[in-house]
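Feature request disguised as a bug: please show the residue count (203) next to Regulator of G-protein signaling 16 in the output. Example input:
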Amino acid sequence: MSCWAPGCPALSMCRGLAALPVTCLERAKDVKTRLGILLHKPELGYRIGTSSKLQLGSRRRDSSQEVLEWRESFDQLLKSKSGVTAFHTFLKTEFSEENLDFWLACEDFKKTRSKTKLASKANRIFEEFVQSEAPREVNIDHETREITRKNLSGATSACFNEAQAKTRTLMEKDSYPRFLKSASYQDMTRQATSCGISKRSHT
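Example output, currently without the count:
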């Protein structure tokens, strides 16, 4: 319900927004639009849809602040649904998105309760990402590959733990730093930082 009496919270909010520079509002819109486009890219397929099943980044935050949090740690990035999607888009430019897809598949796999589905999913993930010359083979050592292969004989929710951990470490130490230095992320952080400074100066 609208209220235009003096001291009304709705009126104060509108005045606060009106006081913000147009450039800040435009930057905030641009950041929101970029995240929206990333979250709805059809070519990302079911794999990024998997991240929504994991309810990554379920805590509602201002999109500009969320963008800045991605640089705090790799964990912060993985906790954010839009962060995972942005990182996946970056990995596609390096032709290494299979690492994140494998990590997401493992997270989804851990939530499987049916033993029958667990076995079939385990084989499917192994054939797609882990076995030698797999269509989307991840970069893990031979020993880890063999350990994972043996784990399939009695598939449990933990059978990919070692391979998933190796892949996560690779992304954290290799791809993640490059993502933070990428032109697209730097552009998003500049806009988010600029908007945050403008907002603070008008509060």
